[in-house]
Input
Amino acid sequence: MKKIEGFKDLGLQLTDHMRMRKRKREKVFNSSKQRRMGSDCINGGNTKLADLHLDIIFNIFSRLPVDTLIRLRSVCKLWNKLIRDPEFIELHLRRLIHIPPSPVIIALATGFLDRRRSLFLVDGIEEGDWRGREIQVEYLLDNRLDLVGSCNGLVCMAPEQNFDSIFICNPITGESLRLPESNLADGFISFGPRTAPRIGFGYDHSAKKYKVIRFWYNEGKLAGEIITLGERSWRNLDIPVTNGGGWFGNYPTELFLNGFLYWIIKREGVEFRRGDEFILAFDICREKFCILDFPWPPLETRYELLQLININGSFAIAIENYGQSQMYFGVVISKIWRLVGSKDMGFSLEQCSSYDDISYHQAYGRLYVLLGDGTLLLKLRRWGRYVSFASFHSKQKYLTRKICFTHKNLSVPLMSEPFLFTPSFVSLSTTY
Amino acid sequence: MSMISGDKSSTEILSLKSSDNEIFEVKKEVVLESITLRGMVEEDEFSDTLIPLPNVEGKILSKIIHYCQKHTEARAKVNGSEGAADSKEIKDFDSEFINVDDKTLLGIILAANYLNIKDLLDLGCQKIADNIKEKSVEDVRKTFNIKNDFTPEEEKAIREENLWAFD
Output
């Protein structure tokens, strides 16, 4: 990938492919001044329609999902411009945040045959008509990147176990941005999977900026750094954790909710079994950490997976227990615990009785999303390569599985950890 | 044709005149659903005379008045609290009310915008958004009476940018 002049300061890099598309786009449409009223492209006849004011058009457009808006760009030149208007994009995003649309999931997929990696979107979940779509992203081909977070339609991709560059991209618009190198990469220690840097990606709604934080375990302490999109270098972060942080849990699990990033951290000296965990919370606006300490439910079986999830806008933890040593052949039982209480009065975990007794065979789950009707959505990974999704009905208390197919009717390829995704047109250049 | 609303109490009745000269007699409290009209009425200019609405035709105005009446009544039932809009009765009324053809829908939206009746404007815009989701690009052009000013090459270029959205 080559750097483009003029974007150097921002660290913004365009791939050859995107540059070509950008040039093609500019050639095809002339850059005349945007016309504000709808009347120019509307034919005679009904004068009322010609009076369709911009704010009404925006009102209607802002209620439409991203894929409809992309289709509507073809209606006429004016609509094409309006849908790309930054003011409209901002309005659309605000509505998306206020009224979350149908859940969409994004993950990194590896093709079966060619091992080619791409971003994979699954939508139609609530309607029961699950569809997967592949989105090619240039730099995924060259780099060993993992999907580590998603926020407002942007995704954060980072190398798994080192300090190589982090990319932020909007898979819908195709824009991407490479973050500056870490300050602390020099003299760095090699990581194992249990001490690899953790990356958090979130949105500071007061400053209206996106931030990335990275922290790692080094010689008995946690160290960290933070960068705001647009800044030229990372800033150090003090992490007030004096003991522990050696093992972040079975899987990197982070949650961004209500302006806070959350991780599960283990206290020192604890290996495979769950022992002394606590939640590390980061206030993204104030850039301050705090620790949430509370009694955890007793360990039920030897093997366990923990995940932080969002249940109806509040923080919860899903704990999956494996009955036998071979997780692939046992029965897995999942329970959901909601965090209740307050800083002053203390926190505790309360079990969600509606989601009691979620159990399944020969698979382990990941990604819990609560649908509008109270159905819980899980991604199950079976032994072997197939990924299926399952939904758990809290009333009927049974689990149904669905294999997800791509639009070409191919079964879903290998997938990395999926994230909830809100497709939007957020432009990286306006995030500064 | 005139429309006298509701009961025989001594509430003030105002007259609204549509663009096609239809006159509607409406209770003042119903008229006040429209922020635009509220401004006019409170300035006391029209308390005795007709309020002309040259931007709104009779067929649409009649529907708008019906909406405002229903919502005023519903609000009165819960003593003016905010919860009125959420009742099942009102929701059912709203979805039936807005289930009209595209031309009427657009007319309602424009009128609700002009008269500044927020809930009706949102209802109309949401309905038309829901309709658009199902429509092909060509059908959308027909609904809004829009001429396709792209050349075939230009249109092809746009489609190819985000092919996945067109499946």
Summary: The beta strands of chain B are 13-17, 23-27, 50-52.
